[in-house]
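README: folding subset

This subset contains proteins for which both the sequence and a predicted structure token string are available. Records are stored as plain text. Below is the entry for Phosphatase (393 residues), shown exactly as it appears on disk.
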Amino acid sequence: MSAESELRAAPPHALVTTARRILTDRAGATEVTLLLADYSLSVLQPVGHLPETSAPLPAHEGPAGTAFTTQRPLVEVADDQATELAYLPITVRGDRLGILRVRLPAGAASAATVLSLADFATALGHEVSTADRDTDLYLRARRTRRLTLAAEMQWQLLPGRGCARAEYVIGAHLEPAYAVGGDNFDWSTSADHLTLTVTDGMGQGIDASLLTSLTVGALRNARRAGISLADQACLADQALFAQYGGKAYSSTLLLQFDLTTGRVQAVDAGSPQLYRLCGTTIEQITLDAQLPLGMFEETPYEEQTFHVEPGDRLIAVSTGVHSTRSAAGDLFGERVLRQVLGATRQASPHEAAHALVAGLIEHFGSNSLAADAAVVCLDWRGRAPGQPARANS
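--- output ---
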């Protein structure tokens, strides 16, 4: 039986135990540890029997953090000099989950072995993602403290924190990770299109979370009906107004990308802002501001069009990003946001989104942000002529 088949046959809660047995038998491993990134992407949490007794590792420092941020396997000689530690990124279709750490006898981590272990880590990541439907073990391991109820609802709504295909790479981040209420991002891909939304539900806490949940559900329902982007906005607008009568509404940016041509259809229904990096040039893509979803009854929405070229980077930010002020009253979106965008141009979309939120927290002067902050970073590669539609693993 293949290693992948053994993982698939394992009970959802027993994936780590099964992985440890497989790698002990087939690779001579003496230790196997699954480390999952927490919600704030600050640490890598070991998965084991609850409550956890092993200490987490930094997500951006040390060998585990380096492997996680660079998405490349890393091998180091252990302190005992008799073993080696291999750190293997666990990523599922562009969504970075964490690291698999494997201890091997000294000299055993050959290039071929590390490549085989990397493939195994990917297979394990797919099984962890599937197991989340049936067990809370991995979800609980991702948190360093309890989430608020509003945050629990928002994280369950998300498609992930990243997505990758041949045509694009997406990295996204939410803060305050353990208490987010109204901000959300969503995406869906098909053979020829990518639809992406950034939503900022008004209010705070559970009220904002309920509003955003209805918004995202209404948009998904409309999108899955196969209607146009403008009509998706119209139907979501009607659903929100029917529920709240205009007393609560959601600011939403809707984008649909043609993967072949780079043509983007957009509906700006509120306050999320969109920036483009082309080479060293940073520009805000100005769209016609239309009314937020649910503000008035039967609001008509119109689509606008722009194009992206291979090498372009798009960054969508919610109100809690571009409208946050420092203690001196300076808006983050006026100067610092552009500085961070320029400084992270060579970083991956995942790291750029994380750095933007880190810059926002530094600008604000506290981890306790006054408003939710959502950042979505997309690197556009485009589709070469004749290139088939396919997804990355």
